[in-house]
Amino acid sequence: MSQLGPVALDAMGGDHAPQATVAGAVAAVREGFPVILVGDEARLRPLIPAGVDLPVHHVAQAVAMDESHPVAAVRAAAIPSVTATMRLVKEGRACAAVSCGHTGAAMAAGLLVLGRLPGVERPAITMVVPRTDGGRLVVLDLGANVDCRPTHLVQFAVMGHAFAHAVLGMAMPRIALLSNGEEPGKGEERVREAGALLAELDLPFIGNIEPTAAFRGGCDVLVCDGFVGNIMLKTVEATAEVVTHIIREELLVHPSAKAGAWLLRPALRRVRERTDYASQGGALLLGVGGVVVVGHGRSDETAVRSALRYAARCASDDLVARIEAALRGLRVAP
Question: Does domain 1-120+287-319 have CATH number 3.40.30.10?
Answer without folding.
Answer: no
